[in-house]
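ESCALATION

Customer reports they have been waiting on this structure for their group meeting. Please prioritize. Original submission:
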Amino acid sequence: SVGQQYLTDTGPIDILAISKDQKRLLVVELKRGRASDVVVGQVLRYMGFVQEELALAGQTVEGVIIAFEDDQKLRRALAAVPTVSFYRYQSSFKLVKG
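Update from on-call: job pushed to the front of the queue and completed.
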């Protein structure tokens, strides 16, 4: 489950990870702010590369989009692509005078 950036012929995958049992490859796309439906196509391109160039027989390829927020377009696109998931990150910090 070590993840690292991976260069493809369609751009760099932010994180490419493999499950401990070696059966699933995971393409992770990180977005700083809001993710829209365009990122679904990006993840699918990367997943296609991984499926065709890297995956071994019996390995599945899944995608994850991580962003601060999503929108209706992204939710609609993801509804048709069950192999891609969306996670929202939360950020908080506290300033302490030093």
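Sent to customer with the following note: The longest helix spans residues 38-54.
Escalation resolved.
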